[in-house]
Structure formats: structure tokens, C-alpha cells
């Protein structure tokens, strides 16, 4: 049923002796649904079952029953022509919602449906309804994913427009200033922040890739120490504003290089450093540790805030992954 209208999806297989028109390629049920539809107000039959969600068992179909089912004289004649003997109408109900109904009829066999048949058929109808509802939900989920991807694409485009203006303005000002000036350093930080924000916007579009397990990783081999220093520089102003001491203890071999997705590593360190600075009281300390351990670079962020978290990331020559997270009651 769609918007109150009933759409038949049935197949009738009457025996040859009861086929009134051999040349008619459509089945009797399909022809009846077009020319002799059931009465929507009838208290017996498929509409009533869909309205109430309760099954109906008609053990013996008499002429009186046919009169109740028929919407007019032509319909009554058609029902008599079918020679129906017994019938069951079962609701297709799933998750509290009636999706439709299924009708089972016997004719020439003379078989009479009883309560045992009704109970068994209700179980079958329930499983069929659940399968139909799962298919409906799957289709709705696919449409929602497509809408989300379209929305993310629009949002990403709208966010990039003002971000491009900020980046271009910072580049133009930096070219006009002395490379050693403090203003130039701040503009460099702005440019770095713009680049990272642009990558974050790109990550909005990666959400679908994450769900399908096809997230793209951009591997790059470069010196690790300058990268870590860049991360600290981006957070020094925030730390100074919050009266937090920001230190680093990098104990890596000279010009040590490592292979990783540095954009995503930068996101992880930005989140860790930002949270550490945010939740550490004024006068506290945030430290970045980096050392070599068994051929891998080990990066740790420590802070002196209450209930501080020590986050440890291990970066090897072919991957980067969180190693552990230790929650302490006191200083980290």
C-alpha cells in the first residue's frame, strides 16, 4: 500500500478449465486488480487486514462471503468464476508497521485452511515482512548516504572559498615583509594553518571512503624533527595566551627520516597538543617527547593538567598507529 492506494503484486495460477480467456496473457489476479478492485471500506478482505494488522481466516468461502467481498455485480460474478474454496489474508507487519498483506486461496483442491495453517502462515508472513522492511531500510540508507555526500561536497566548496582568500592574503603580505620580522613569522603560521584547514575540509569528503575501507593514505618520507618543531610553533601562541609552558624533548638521530602520512599525523598531534593546552591550568606545562625505539619513532604528549592523559603514538617505517592511552589521576 502506497499513500492509501493498494498495488497488487500477486500471481494467480488457475487450472486450464477455469481460464475464461485463453488469449489473455495477463493473469486473473492482475486483470481483476485493474478492472474489479476490492472495496476499500469492506470489513472482510485485504483492506481490513491492512487497517487492523490482524489476519483473517475464511475456512469456507460461501456465496454469502463472496457477496461481502464483491464491490458490484460484475465483481461478484468474477469471484464466483474463480471457484475459491478457502482463504487466508495475512498482514505483512515489521517493526510495528504494516507494509501490506498476502492472500492465500485454495480452489479445486478443496483443501480447507484451519488454525494450524494460519499460525504457520503468519510466521512465514512475518519473515517476509521483515525482509521487505530490511530492503526498504537499505534503500533509504543508500539515499541518505548520497544526500550526505552531496551536502559535504557543497559545504567543502563553500568553506574553501573564504579559506582561499585568507591564504592568498597571507602570502601577499609575507612577500612585502622582511623575512626576519615577527609579522612574517605570524603570517607563516597563518599559511600553515590554512593548509591544514584545507586538508581537514578534504577529509569531510573522505568519510564515505572510511566507511567502505578505502581511505587514501598519502605516504611521504621526510625528516621528522623539523616537522615536530613546526607542530610546536603552531601552538606556541596559544600556549602563551593560556600561560602554559610548551617544551620539546626530541632525542632522534641526526636527520632521522620516517615514512608516514604527515597530514594525518599533523591532525593527530594538533588535536593532542590543543587539548593538552586547553585543559592544563595556567602555569602548567605541556611537553612533546620523541625518541627512537627499535627502529621506530615514538612520539608522546604529556601535560600537567588534572586527570591528564598521556597519548603515545608509534611511527614506524611503513605505518603510524596509536599505541596506547593511559589515563592518570594526577600529573602526566
TrEMBL record:
Show the segment(s) annotated as Disordered.
Answer: 1-40
Give residue spans, biased composition: Polar residues. Answer: 23-33
| Enzyme Commission (EC) number | 2.7.13.3
User: Is the keyword Phosphoprotein in the record?
Assistant: yes
- Which UniProt keyword terms apply here? Phosphoprotein
Tell me what this protein is called: histidine kinase
Going by the record, the broad EC class of this enzyme is transferase
* Catalytic activity as recorded in UniProt: ATP + protein L-histidine = ADP + protein N-phospho-L-histidine
Q: Which residues form the signal peptide?
A: none
Q: Does the keyword DNA-binding apply?
A: no
Amino acid at each position: 500500500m502506497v499513500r492509501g492506494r493498494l498495488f497488487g503484486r500477486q500471481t494467480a495460477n488457475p487450472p486450464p478449465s477455469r481460464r475464461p480467456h485463453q488469449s489473455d496473457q495477463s493473469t486473473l489476479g492482475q486483470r481483476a486488480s485493474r478492472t474489479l478492485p476490492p472495496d476499500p471500506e469492506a470489513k472482510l478482505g485485504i483492506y481490513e487486514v491492512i487497517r487492523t494488522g490482524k489476519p483473517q481466516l475464511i475456512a469456507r468461502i460461501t456465496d454469502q462471503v463472496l457477496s461481502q467481498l464483491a464491490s458490484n455485480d460484475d465483481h461478484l460474478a468474477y469471484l464466483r468464476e474463480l471457484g475459491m474454496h478457502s482463504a487466508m489474508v495475512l498482514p505483512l507487519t515489521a517493526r510495528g508497521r504494516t507494509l501490506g498483506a498476502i492472500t492465500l486461496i485454495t480452489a479445486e483442491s478443496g483443501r480447507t485452511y484451519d488454525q494450524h495453517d494460519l499460525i504457520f502462515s503468519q510466521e512465514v508472513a512475518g519473515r517476509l515482512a521483515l525482509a521487505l522492511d530490511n530492503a526498504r531500510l537499505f534503500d533509504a540508507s543508500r539515499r541518505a548516504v548520497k544526500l550526505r555526500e552531496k551536502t559535504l561536497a557543497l559545504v567543502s566548496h563553500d568553506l574553501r572559498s573564504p579559506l582561499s582568500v585568507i591564504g592568498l592574503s597571507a602570502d601577499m603580505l609575507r612577500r612585502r615583509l622582511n623575512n626576519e620580522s615577527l609579522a612574517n613569522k605570524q603570517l607563516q603560521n597563518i599559511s600553515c594553518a590554512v593548509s591544514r584547514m584545507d586538508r581537514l575540509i578534504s577529509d569531510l569528503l573522505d568519510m564515505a571512503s572510511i566507511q567502505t575501507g578505502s581511505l587514501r593514505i598519502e605516504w611521504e618520507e621526510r625528516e621528522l624533527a623539523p616537522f615536530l618543531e613546526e607542530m610546536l610553533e603552531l601552538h606556541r601562541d596559544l600556549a602563551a595566551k593560556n600561560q602554559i609552558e610548551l617544551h620539546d624533548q626530541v632525542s632522534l638521530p641526526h636527520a632521522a627520516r620516517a615514512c608516514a602520512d604527515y597530514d594525518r599525523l599533523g591532525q593527530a598531534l594538533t588535536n593532542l597538543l590543543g587539548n593538552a593546552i586547553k585543559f592544563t591550568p595556567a602555569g602548567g606545562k605541556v611537553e612533546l617527547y620523541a625518541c627512537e625505539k627499535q627502529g621506530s619513532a615514538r612520539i608522546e604528549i604529556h601535560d600537567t593538567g588534572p586527570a591528564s592523559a598521556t597519548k603515545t603514538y608509534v611511527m614506524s617505517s611503513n605505518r603510524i598507529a596509536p599505541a596506547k592511552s593511559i589515563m592518570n589521576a594526577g600529573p602526566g
